[in-house]
Each structure stands twice: as structure tokens, then as C-alpha cells.
Design a protein that fits this description.
By secondary structure, the chain is α+β, with helices and mostly antiparallel strands. It contains 14 helices and 13 strands. The strands form three sheets. It has a six-stranded antiparallel β-sheet. The chain has a five-stranded mixed β-sheet with strand order 8-9-7-12-13, sandwiched between helices. It is elongated. The termini are far apart.
Length: 393
């Protein structure tokens, strides 16, 4: 009888110690998530909390987020060693250097998640939300509750696109929710230690995922508000404030990397007479149409902005004068060839633009000088006959 009581007391003491540790870990990770509204940093904090020995201690973890537009799940970040040997080296280093969870989630370490072989192996996965139930991720998404797949059941999902590249003997998949809506999934396993995933492991994982879902939703809302504050209401392009901020950063980067930076200023020819003749609603229609042409024509690294009124600007990183002129000429031709069809009054207009181009460091050394040179070149084009491009002298 006494022996049984002693065993029970020992078990209760162990459970209490585990509960205290789990609550301390959860508190630490939750606090870390609250210190940032940057989505990448939040994802990194979550994954570090799931995989760190001072956290939940899983070997590997991946976060998939829902792409509502394309109706699929996309991998956004992953943390995990390449092999058992690599895992041992990482764990020994962390243990020897006595790194805390705070040390591990520092922003300086974030790039490791994108450069890892684990992320590279799964980064191109796109899992349709409506895939059949043998696709483990889409099934977990629709289930909307935690899914633990023990070793004896893993073979059922062997043909799943995830398990084709993410070899696992046992899996846990937990939904990331906000307001009862699933925005993503966390996938974790213990491939290298082969440690069984217990009920207690699942409990703390679910509590962490609940906090993580809210943190991700807050980051999405913040990004949306930030995007709206930087977006022009009429055209949907970046606005003047964003242009000034982005050009400042682009100039710094070009100067530090010793690369060229092009700037294009675009002005719609005879826009005031167009407004006076056809009305401001049709004027807005022309602005939107030109914005669409600019958006369809720019390169991924460029920034297309509405400067103000009938003026647009494009920031062209790593672009010399000849390249900037060629881009400007293609845009000018596309706008000239476009038919602007008005609904009321019914009319088909031809619209042209005058463009000024300046390049750093050829034409300017500073941001303000670059804007002034591009602006002056644009006015030279305008007063020199319109529907043409002028390059800064």
C-alpha cells in the first residue's frame, strides 16, 4: 500500500513538473510572438518554439498558410536538421553554448529557416484545399482539428504530396485558427530521435497553435492596414508616401552595392482638357487604365507609384540608362496604342504620356537630385512636343 502511494506521489510530482515546464514554455513563446507584427518573424518564433529543446522539442516543423486566392496550402517556413548527425551537432552546440529561447528566435537567425535544405525540399509544394482525403494536408485543413498520425497509420497517406518529399514515420498536424477559421497548419515530427508523440505533447502543441493562429491573424491585419495606408485609392498603385520611403531605401542599397538605380517620371499629356471635356469620372477611368498598363509591364523588382495628380513614377533598381530608356519606350508605345473606351459619354480616346528618365549615379548622387533630374527631363519631354521620352543630361 505504501509503495503504491509513493509511486502515485512520484507520478503526480512528475506531472506537476511537466505542467509547470509546459506553461513556462508557452508563456515565453507567447510573449515572444507579441513583440512583433512582422509575419516572417512570427512564423520563425513559432517554429523555433516547436523545435527548440527549450521549447516543445520536436525535431522538424513546417508552417503552411492558406492562399485563398489560389485555394491552396503553401509552405511558408520550415525548421529542421538535414540528418541525424546534423541534428546531434546542432543540439550539442545549443546545449554547450547555453542558448535560451530568446537567443534562438533573434531576427539574425531568420534566414536560416529559408536557407535550410528542409525548406528548399518543400517550398514548391502547392496543396489544393479540395484534394482527396488521402492528401494528408488538405484532409487536416478540412478536419480543422489536430491530427495525430501514428506509425501504424502513416502508410495510408504514403502517396500524399507532402510525404513524397517529407519522409516521416509519425506526424502531428495542428490547425492555425482565428475566429474559428483555419488560416494554416503546423506540421511536426520526430524523425531523428524517434521519440513517440504523447498526449501531453499534443496538449501543449495545441495550446501553442491557438496562440500562434491569433498572432498570424494579427500580422495579416497589420500587413493589410499597412498596405492600404501605402496604396493610392484611385489606381491601386503605391502612393506618394510609399514612393518616398522606397526610393530612400533603393538609393541607399544602390550606393552600398555600387549598382545603378533608374527613376522614371510619367505625365499624362493634356489631362486637364480631358477632365474638363469628359468629366472627372472619366479622368479617373483613364488614370486606372494607365495604372493597369504600368502594373502589367513592370518587372518584379520595380516599384510603380502614383506620384500625384496625373503623374506616375517607377523606381528601377539595378537599371542603367539604356535599360531605363528601353523600358520607358515600351511603356510609351503601349499607352499610345491603347484605346481608352468611355461608357458615358460613349467615346474612344487616344492618350499619350511624356516620360523623363534619370539614373543614379550617372545623373545624380542623392535621392532629391535624382527626383529633380527625372522631373526636369519629363517636363523637357512635355514642352518639347509630348508623347516622347527625355533622358536627363
Amino acid at each position: 500500500m505504501e509503495k503504491t502511494e509513493t509511486s502515485d506521489n512520484k507520478y503526480l510530482a512528475e506531472q506537476l513538473q511537466r505542467a509547470r515546464r509546459d506553461l513556462a514554455v508557452l508563456y515565453e513563446i507567447s510573449n515572444a510572438m507579441r513583440t512583433s507584427l512582422d509575419l516572417d518573424q512570427i512564423l520563425f518564433t513559432i517554429l523555433t518554439g516547436v523545435t527548440a529543446h527549450t521549447g516543445l522539442g520536436f525535431n522538424r516543423a513546417i508552417i503552411f498558410l492558406v492562399n485563398h486566392k489560389e485555394r491552396c496550402l503553401e509552405p511558408k517556413m520550415a525548421i529542421g536538421p538535414e540528418s541525424g548527425e546534423h541534428a546531434q551537432k546542432i543540439w550539442q552546440y545549443i546545449s554547450a553554448s547555453k542558448k535560451s529561447l530568446d537567443d534562438l528566435i533573434k531576427t539574425d537567425n531568420l534566414n536560416q529557416a529559408y536557407e535550410s535544405s528542409l525548406f528548399k525540399s518543400i517550398k514548391d509544394l502547392r496543396i489544393p484545399l479540395d484534394a482527396d482525403d488521402k492528401n494528408v494536408l488538405s484532409y487536416a485543413y478540412r478536419l480543422a482539428t489536430p491530427l495525430h498520425i501514428p506509425p501504424e497509420k502513416i502508410s495510408y497517406y504514403a502517396q500524399s504530396s507532402l510525404l513524397q518529399v517529407f519522409k516521416a514515420n509519425e506526424l502531428v498536424i495542428v490547425p492555425l485558427k482565428a475566429k474559428d477559421k483555419v488560416n494554416g497548419l503546423i506540421v511536426a515530427d520526430n524523425l531523428f530521435t524517434q521519440k513517440t508523440i504523447t498526449v501531453d505533447d499534443l496538449k501543449i502543441f495545441i495550446m501553442l497553435a491557438n496562440q500562434a493562429g491569433l498572432a498570424i491573424e494579427n500580422a495579416h491585419l497589420y500587413e493589410m492596414i499597412k498596405h492600404q495606408s501605402h496604396t493610392d485609392a484611385v489606381t491601386g498603385l503605391w502612393n506618394h508616401g510609399f514612393f518616398q520611403e522606397q526610393l530612400t531605401e533603393a538609393v541607399k542599397k544602390a550606393q552600398s552595392e555600387k549598382t545603378s538605380l533608374g527613376l522614371m517620371m510619367i505625365d499624362i499629356d493634356d489631362f486637364k482638357p480631358l477632365n474638363d471635356t469628359y468629366g472627372h469620372q472619366n479622368g479617373d477611368f483613364v488614370l486606372k487604365e494607365i495604372a493597369t498598363i504600368l502594373k502589367e509591364s513592370y518587372r518584379e523588382m520595380d516599384f510603380v507609384c502614383r506620384y500625384g495628380g496625373e503623374e506616375f513614377t517607377i523606381i528601377l533598381p539595378q537599371t542603367n540608362k539604356d535599360q531605363a530608356y528601353a523600358i520607358a519606350e515600351r511603356l510609351r508605345q503601349r499607352i499610345e496604342a491603347h484605346s481608352f473606351v468611355l461608357s458615358s459619354p460613349a467615346a474612344s480616346l487616344k492618350v499619350t504620356v511624356s516620360v523623363g528618365v534619370a539614373v543614379l549615379p550617372d545623373d545624380a548622387k542623392t535621392k532629391l537630385e535624382l527626383i529633380a533630374k527625372a522631373d526636369k527631363a519629363m517636363y523637357t519631354a512635355k514642352f518639347g512636343g509630348k508623347n516622347q521620352i527625355c533622358v536627363a543630361e
